[in-house]
Amino acid sequence: MAKTLVIAIDGPAAAGKGTLAKRLAIHYRLHYLDTGLLYRAVGRKAQAAGLDLDNPEEMTPIARDLNFHDIDEPSLRGREAGELASRVAAHSGVRQALNAFQREFAAQPGGALLDGRDIGTVICPDADVKIFVTASAEVRARRRTDELNAKGRTVVYERILEEVRQRDDRDSNRAVSPLKAADDAHLLDTSELSIDGVFRKACSLIDAQISR
Ligand code: CDP
Ligand code: CDP
């Protein structure tokens, strides 16, 4: 029987993780989990309950009680939920409460691909392939702005750039599981690459690993 493949994709906001991850999961027939949705769901639930998102004691029970069937909510994908997510994601109790689900997901038969911030470092340190997707903050903000404008929402590039920088800062400087590339991750800078170009590069990294 073929060995089960586990792929870890990490990187900062709007680097193109999700776009790449979805294509790779289809191509390699892997189960796919967008782990940002877990943190987004906790942030949203906490906000709806009127709780203090910066208080770990209030946030940990929300993460423990999260119903994992509810994470595929379209409203979770918006900018506001991303901001809430990065606040609750700084609490170690929240992260611990979400870790077991992610690890079980990664271990299921058939293989898995997960994307987030700490997949290669904490959730799947033994992943077969780790890819850290990056792009400059300016390129990421431009892509996000174009994406939102294409959806009919008028947003200002400068404002989006500020949000991207704030999120980078919070995710990179938190004490627990900060955003950083695993030592054995392949760095994939997408600043100058098309979506197809990113996909092709990632496939060649993965294929090289599989054939070893
Ligand atoms: O998941 P993450 O926040 O890292 O990024 P995404 O939502 O997959 O991608 C952000 C935006 O960049 C989307 O609108 C993509 O279409 C676009 N994009 C990309 O992902 N890769 C490129 N090489 C060029 C554009
Ligand atoms: O798509 P985008 O990169 O904008 O956001 P996301 O992947 O949905 O993540 C939202 C927030 O959740 C991030 O800014 C992180 O603070 C947090 N997160 C995390 O800490 N660990 C993960 N594995 C995934 C997301």
Automatic annotation (TrEMBL):
CDD domains attached to this UniProt entry: CMPK
GO cellular component, one term: cytoplasm
Annotated compartments: Cytoplasm
Residues noted as binding ATP in the record, renumbered to the chain: G11, P12, A13, A14, A15, G16, K17, G18, T19
Protein's GO biological process: pyrimidine nucleotide metabolic process
Protein name: Cytidylate kinase
Main location: cytoplasm
EC number per UniProt: 2.7.4.25
Keyword Iron: no
Pfam families: Cytidylate_kin
Natural source organism: Fulvimarina pelagi HTCC2506
Family: Belongs to the cytidylate kinase family. Type 1 subfamily.
Domain Cytidylate kinase: 7-206
Example of a GO MF term: ATP binding
InterPro entries: Cytidylate_kin, Cytidylate_kinase_dom, P-loop_NTPase
Superkingdom, taxonomy of origin: Bacteria
Keywords of this entry: ATP-binding, Cytoplasm, Kinase, Nucleotide-binding, Transferase
Keyword Cytoplasm in record: yes
Coiled-coil spans in chain: none
Catalytic activity: CMP + ATP = CDP + ADP; dCMP + ATP = dCDP + ADP
